[in-house]
Design brief:
The protein is α/β, with parallel strands linked by helices. It has helices at about 10-20, 35-40, 55-60, 85-105, 150-165, 190-195, 215-225, 245-255, 265-275, 280, 290-295, 305-310, and strands at about 1-5, 25-30, 45-50, 65-70, 115-120, 170-175, 180, 210, 210-215, 235, 245. The two termini are about 35 Å apart.
Length: about 325
């Protein structure tokens, strides 16, 4: 299958691309920085450049592809969520997705991709909170209604743009991705720093949930979705075994051979990071209902084995 990945030079893209090529797909990375991309990607991966002001180059890049995977989006974990930063987060997701879907709709049906797989986030379900009127109990699955707050609103709008592709006969899947664990990116390397200095511990009261997925399982799940021509809709890309922040930190410490004794107060994070601190202090327990119905088998369904694989230690 010919697969174009937009936003394929980021942490997720760099890791899922070799898994897709190993599965027999011909992958083309569509990026604004083709020279940089060629230096970090595998030799058998094709690279096409495009610019936001030139829709023709984007149209040429997706022309004749069997599927388009949209991983574009600025990092949620960089910088305080000022109004300016929120604009960047929205534009990099919503406006880019809108441009992609508009481009796909303009292609003749004979060369239009049959599938559009777009990233989204488990922020769709909102964050766990101590406010009784907003408290969500139990795990969310793909049938759960959207929650409240910036992340939920962002995800709802993001998916709304992606699912417009169904109007043009394109099978569309939105991957609601949890915390992605891997060696060379995502949240984990930053979380390891205090543990390596013997200063690790849970964030806040530690009871909030962490819904996570090993980056290799994310790539394998994407490969399954590409092959299942009948599947469309939202798909939670998380392990079937979420943990509390306390459990997460204890397991990190155990895997590293370090203590997990020094909690980080929620108020300190809020002072340092502002609204962005809610990513760490409020959790989400999310269940991958659709992955189970697809018959997907996780290589790393439990956190201990995932961390052991990433950190090079025995589970």
């Amino acid at each position: 299958m010919n697969v174009a990945i937009v936003g394929g030079t980021g942490f997720i893209g760099r890791n899922v691309t070799p898994l897709l090529t190993a599965d027999g797909h011909r992958v083309t990375i569509v990026t604004r920085t083709p020279d940089k991309a060629s230096a970090v990607l595998e030799a058998e991966t094709f690279v096409r450049g495009w610019g936001p002001s030139n829709r023709d180059t984007l149209e040429q890049a997706v022309h004749g592809q069997d599927a388009v995977v949209n991983l574009a989006g600025a990092s949620l974990a960089e910088g305080r969520w000022t109004q300016a930063r929120k604009h960047v987060l929205r534009a990099s997701r919503i406006e880019t997705t809108r441009m992609l879907v508009n481009t796909l709709s303009n292609l003749p049906a004979t060369v239009r991709p049959k599938a559009f797989i777009s990233a989204s986030g488990i922020g769709y379900y909102g964050l766990e909170t101590a406010e009784p009127s907003k408290l969500r109990t139990g795990s969310a699955d793909e049938t759960t209604k959207p929650g409240e707050g910036f992340l939920a609103d962002l995800s709802v709008e993001w998916e709304r743009e992606a699912f417009r592709a169904t109007d043009f006969g394109i099978r569309t899947v939105c991957l609601r991705i949890g915390m992605v664990l891997g060696k060379d990116g995502g949240a984990l390397p930053k979380m390891l720093i205090p543990f390596k200095a013997f200063l690790g511990g849970p964030v806040g009261d530690g009871t909030q949930h962490v819904s996570w997925i090993h980056v290799e399982d994310l790539g394998r799940l994407l490969a399954v979705v590409l092959k299942r021509d009948s599947f469309q809709g939202p798909l939670n890309a998380v392990s079937p075994h979420p943990v509390t922040m306390n459990e997460f930190c204890v397991q990190v410490g155990k895997t590293l051979g370090r203590p997990a004794w020094l909690p980080v107060p929620a108020f300190a994070l809020k002072i340092a990071l502002g609204e962005m601190s809610t990513l760490m202090t409020h959790g989400q327990s999310v269940h991958p209902l659709m992955a189970g119905q697809l018959g997907f088998t996780y290589t790393y369904s439990y956190l201990d084995s995932a961390l052991a694989a990433i950190l090079g230690r025995k589970a």
